[in-house]
Amino acid sequence: MKGIIYLVTNKVTGHKYVGQTTQLLAVRWQQHLGTNYTLPPTSALDKAIKQYGEAAFTVEQIDSSTSNFWLDAQERHWIKFYDACNPEKGYNVLEARTAITSERAVAAQTECTPAQRARQRNNHKSRKTEVLVPVERPTVLRWHSLPAHMRRESSV
User: Fold this and answer.
1) Mean pLDDT of the chain
2) pLDDT digits (tens, 9 = 90+) for 20-74
3) C-beta separation of 31 from 8 below 8 A
4) Taking a C-beta distance cutoff of 8 angstroms, is the pair 79, 85 a contact?
5) 6, 9, 39, 35: which is closest to 23 by C-alpha?
6) More confidently predicted of 95 and 140
7) Residue 89, by phi and psi: left (phi above 0), alpha (psi -120 to 50) or beta?
8) CB atoms < 10 A from the CB of 73, how many?
9) Alpha carbon distances (Å) from 87 to 48, 77, 78
10) What is d(CA 36, CA 27) in angstroms, rounded to the nearest whole number?
11) For residues 24 and 108, which has the higher predicted lDDT (pLDDT)?
12) CB of 90 within 8 A of CB of 15?
């Protein structure tokens, strides 16, 4: 699984926040709670968590995807579905984090001719990758760690 779309709901007001993450949902929720932040809350969700407390919120996974492109598209869909950009209903500020990038990617895909796509695929396939072989006992020598007799210039 590449990532998930999650929904945070304020049980008191009904406001919603839609987000995406490639981490575990519990880890992402802890980041929202700001347990390791020292700065004051800046986003609408952060302020609401500080105002109402952690117990006033539910967090659930609502979708998932193995592609970043589709993850962005799903996030955009769910934000619109819940109208989470509307300050009276939700905490989202943007339609989606990478909505502009995704729309450009769709436009770029539709503007390419089949010949251009084939050329791009061939270019990608022709790239050479270097195979790294692990060394059993690596040795790292630094000038300052060499014995004095090895640091002298050779008198050949």
Assistant:
1) 74
2) 999 998 888 888 887 555 556 678 888 899 899 889 999 999 998 888 888 888 9
3) no
4) yes
5) 6
6) 95
7) alpha
8) 19
9) 12, 17, 16
10) 12
11) 24
12) yes
Residues forming a β-bridge with 60: 7
What per-residue confidence (pLDDT) applies to 79?
Answer: 92
Q: What domains lie within the chain, and their CATH numbers?
A: 3-107 (3.40.1440.10)
Full 3-state SS string of the chain: CCEEEEEEEECCCCCEEEEEECCCHHHHHHHHHCCCCCCCCCCHHHHHHHHHCHHHEEEEEEEEECCHHHHHHHHHHHHHHHCCCCCCCECCCCCCCCHHHHHHHHHHHHHCCHHHHHHHHHHHHHCCCCCCCCCCCCCCCCHHHCCHHHHCCCCC
Scan for tokens 């589709």, then name that residue.
Answer: 70
Residue identified by tokens 């996974």 is: 61
Whole-structure pTM value: 0.60
